[in-house]
Amino acid sequence: MDRLTIGAIDIGGTKLAATVARADGPVLRMSAPTPKSGSIRALPERAIALLDETCKRSGVDPAEIRTVGVSSCGPFSTDDGLIGLVSPNICGAGSDVADLPNDWDVIPLESVLRERFDNLVIENDGVAALAAERSFGALQGENNCAYVTWSTGIGFGLCVDGRILRGKNGNAGHAGHMLLSETSDALCGCGNRGDLEALVSGRNLGNRYGQSAAAIFDTARKGDPHALAVTTEAARWFGRALYNLTATLDLAAFAVGGSVWLNHGEWLLPIVQEELLSHLPALTKGVRVCTAGLGTHVGDLAALSLVLSSEWATAWRSSAPWHKTALAAG
Amino acid sequence: MDRLTIGAIDIGGTKLAATVARADGPVLRMSAPTPKSGSIRALPERAIALLDETCKRSGVDPAEIRTVGVSSCGPFSTDDGLIGLVSPNICGAGSDVADLPNDWDVIPLESVLRERFDNLVIENDGVAALAAERSFGALQGENNCAYVTWSTGIGFGLCVDGRILRGKNGNAGHAGHMLLSETSDALCGCGNRGDLEALVSGRNLGNRYGQSAAAIFDTARKGDPHALAVTTEAARWFGRALYNLTATLDLAAFAVGGSVWLNHGEWLLPIVQEELLSHLPALTKGVRVCTAGLGTHVGDLAALSLVLSSEWATAWRSSAPWHKTALAAG
To answer: What is the pLDDT of residues B281-310, one digit of tens each?
Structure first.
C-alpha cells in the first residue's frame, strides 16, 4: 500500500497543474499554461505529459500511476457517458467571450484520459474543492454545506444530506450564473446580465470599474468612499446568493475561498452575513459562513481528494502534508 | 400482504386530509379544516382522529394502520432529531402573516404522531409531491428534476443524482423564497420583497392587483392587455427561477402543478420556456418543462408515495387507482 502513487490534474482557464502523491502526502506539483491551440486532444494530452514529467522529477515511474483525480473548470457535456469540456474560456467554437486560436467545440477530456488511466474521477472544480474542504478543511462533519470560490469567477460545490451534488452532466454548482438583478447591466462571460458572477467576480468588477479587482478591494479597505460603495454592494449580492442557496437547499454552512475572499473576507464577512441572515429565519438561523480551511491549498487538494483512500485521508488530516509540497513550472 | 393497510396525512395551511389505502389503491380520502386553536398538540391529534375516522368509514380497524406517510406544508424545525412544524400560516407565535388564535411556536408533529405510528415518514409537501410525480407522474425515470407547484404559494421538490433533497431540517425546496427582483415592492408572507412567491403566487398577485388570481389569469387569456402584461411578467419570473435552479443543480426536467398552472399552463409554457432557455445553453439546452402528470391527484398521492412498497407502486402504475378514490368531508 505505501508504494502506491496517485495523480491529480487541475484544469483551469489559464493554467494546468499536475500533482503526484504518495501515502505520506503530495510530493510535487507542476504547472503549465492551458493549451488553446492544436488538435482537439491537445489539452488532455498536455495534462498527461505534465503528469508524466511530474512523476519523473519525483523519481516515480509514470506507469505506476493508474489512479487520477481531475478537477476542471466547466461546464461539462456528456456524450455516451463520457465527460467532455465545453468551457467558453478554452473552446473557440461558439465562444462569445474570448478570441481563441482554436475551433474546438467539445474537448474529449474523459475519453483521452481513459486511454491512459484505469481509475479516473473527473469533477468540476467547485465540486472537487468542496470534497477537499469536507475532507481536510472547514466543512468536516457538515452534511449540508457549500464551498464557494470568490475569485476571477464565482464557483460553487454543493453538498446536501451528506452527498455531493453532480447533476445531469456534472455541472451542479454553476450558481455563479444565478440571476440576481433585473436592472444591472453588469455583463457576465456567459452572456447573462445581472447574474452573481457579473455582479461580483474579480474579472467583471475589473471590467466595469477600469481597474483590477485587487486595487478596488484594497482601496475600499483604506476607506475610499466610492470603492467602499462598490465592494459593499458586491458583498451584499454575494450574501443574497448564499441566502438563495440556503432557501433552496436548506444548507447549514458555507466555506468561502478564492483570491478576493482570502484577502478581504475578514471585513466582507459581516456584510455577507447580515444579508444572508436577514431573510427567512426558519431556514437561515444559525447558518455559518467561514473562510475555507485550506486557504490557497484548496486547489492542490481538490483533485487529489476525489481519489484519496480513507486511510490516506485520515493520515493526512493529522499530518497536513500539503504545507510542504514542492512546486515547479512545467 | 394484501390485507395490509397504510395511511396518509396531508397537512395544509387551511385543510387536513387523511387517506387509507390497500394494495389495490387508495380507498377513501377525508378532509377537515386545519386546527388553529387549542393545545399545541391539537393539529397532529386531529390528524390522527381524521385518519381513524377514515379507517372506520372504510371498514378498516384503525389499529391495523402502523405505516403512515405525512406530507406537510413547511417550514420544519428539528429538535432532538424530531420534526416540528413552524409554518407561519398555522403557528401564531412570531407570525407576521396572519392573526392566528394560538401562541404556538413549534408544533410537535413527529413526536405526537410517533406515539401512535411505528413506521412514519414526514416530508414537506414539495418533496412528497416530487416523490409522487417520480413514482406515477411526469418525472418517472428522471434523476435530475424538480416538481413545482404554482398555486396560492410556490413550492418545490428537488431531485439530484436520483436522490430527493431534504437538507438540514427537511426544508430543501423552499426556492419559492428565492430573491429575484431587487426593485419590486411585491411582498411575500415570509417578509421578503421580490422573492419568487411575492412576484407570482396566486395569493400575492391577488393582493397586489385587488382581484383573485383566477380572475387575473382568466382575463389575460381573453386578451385584456393589462392582465396579459401582469401574467406575462409573472411567467417570465417563474421561468427565471427555473433557470436559476437549472444553473445551480444541473436539472433536466421540471413538472409543474398547482391551480394556476393546471388551469393556464398551456399558454404560459412558451413564455416560461423562452426565459429558461435564453440563458447558459451549456446547462439549459434540452431542459424539459411539462405539466405534472398527476394533475389534481398529486396531493392524494404525495403522502402515500412516501411509504408505498415497490410492489404496490408497480401495480398502481398500471392500474392508476387514484382516479376512483372516494372522497368525504370529516
So the answer is: 999 999 999 999 999 899 889 999 999 999
In the 8-state DSSP scheme, what is residue A285? Answer: T
Which residues of chain A neighbour B183 with C-beta distances below 8 Å?
182-183
DSSP state of A176: G
Give SS3 for A228: helix
Gap between the Cα atoms of B108 and B218, Å rounded: 41
Instruction: Answer whether A70's CB lies under 8 Å from A119's CB.
Output: no
The per-residue pLDDT for A326 is 82
Are the CB atoms for A152 and A98 separated by under 8 Å?
A: no
Say what the ipTM of the complex is: 0.95
Best interface-test mutation with B: which of A96, A106, A160 has the largest number of B CBs within 10 A? Answer: A160
Smallest CA–CA distance from A156 into chain B, residue: B248
Whether the CB of A168 is below 8 Å from some CB of chain B: the reply is yes
Find all residues with CB under 8 Å of A63, minimum gap 6, and list them.
Answer: none
**What distances in angstroms separate CA A222 from CA A150, A219, A226, A228, B89, one per listed residue?**
21, 5, 11, 9, 47
Residue given cell 485587487 in the structure block: A214
**Residue A113 to residues A9, A19, A67, A122, A174, Cα–Cα distance (Å):** 10, 15, 11, 10, 24
Q: Which residues pair with B31 in a beta bridge?
A: B17, B329
C-alpha cell at A272: 455577507
Instruction: Look at residues B6, B44, B12 and name the one whose alpha carbon lies nearest to residue B27.
Output: B6
CA A266, chain centre distance (Å): 21
Containing A27, the helix (H) or strand (E) segment is strand A25-33
Asked whether the predicted pLDDT for residue B2 surpasses 70, the reply is no
Alpha-carbon torsion (A121, A125, A131, A137), positive or negative: positive
d(CA B136, CA B140): 7
